[in-house]
Amino acid sequence: MYEYQVEGGFPIKGSITASGNKNAALPCIAACLLTNEPVILRNIPDIEDTNVMLQILMSLGVGVEKIGDHAWKIDAAKINSSSIPAQMSRKIRASILFAGPLVARTGKAIMLPPGGDVIGRRRLDTHFLALEELGARISTEGRFEFTANKLVGTDIFLDEASVTATENAIMAAVLAEGRTDITNAASEPHVQDLCEMLRQMGAQITGVGSNILHIDGVRKLSGTDFTIGPDYMEIGSYIGLAACTGGSVEINGIRPREIRPLKIAFGKLGIQWNIEGTTLTVSSDQKLKVNADIGGMIPKIDDSPWPGFPPDLTSIMVVVATQVEGTVLVFEKMFESRMFFVDKLISMGARITLCDPHRAVVSGPCALHGDHLVSPDVRAGMAMVIAALSARGESRISNVYQIERGYEHLIERLQSLGAHIKRVEVQ
Which residues are catalytic? Predict the structure, then answer.
């Protein structure tokens, strides 16, 4: 087991390049099962979640070869099994993404309920309903078993705009017979990346970037060479870190259009940045003060489906708000347990009122002090890292496996920015 030891109070400074988008890499890895020709994926982040997904491919008999820095060649000419090993299903929620492509390619997918972050109930009903409408038969007795003699295109209305359910439906539909229309589809940049990859492979998909997708099934997909886009969740995390520590950071390799929802939310806390081309720069002269709504009302930072503010950054915003003058309401709408990490921030000196499982009122600025923290999930874990680096004194963060599932080479990158943090083995 490992933990982070952090000495806070030192501003970060320096330059980094954005990692590949974890949430795009995961479905794109699964989509390689849809063709018997080799696929090259580039800009794959070197994190635990992508490593597990690649291990799952190998367990199915798929050829997986690292061909360069962040680049992999995946050859699914032969698939020897349609059953995902139990221990791998339990490790990550993204294992459910193999359901659509396995059913489309082999007619069967077997797995245990997926693992992942403990942030509340994460229903899978939307996955099942979408695949059933395409013709799959599903059993959930003890394990998940998906079978289909043939998938047939249909008109699907998703009961929620679930990212992973949308991705599963897309991957199943591209090889289904006839047309599939998916309404209330998720449209996040990672869903768009998956669609662009599939289009490069010969899939017929229109409406990409909207909440209505039209897919005309094809009999066969070809291989391709595809580059994953930057991780705007990681970018938002480093923006928050720079602001909280009074530091500065230059982030290269961004997509400016994906940063627009972040700009509105961070702007409510007085945080600004400059973008030139694909480089974003946060300076150290931020005026960290809440910008009240018209009439002097307390502003609200809330999440919503794309192009709204991403739910994965609400934990980060809670920590940032502790260092900002004024009061703000952070409203996380999706997961009823994501906000429970704030008790650790309160123990560090934060002034936070948890109104209910979804809403927290934060008043700042607060002088945080070091503490022993335990990471409950990827994003709350990174929020704790930011809090520890902003605090006076030393902190310890346990269960860092959860953080490293989503942030590539985190300790090395933070150290390159001047952060006083190290990863140590503990008994």
Answer: 117
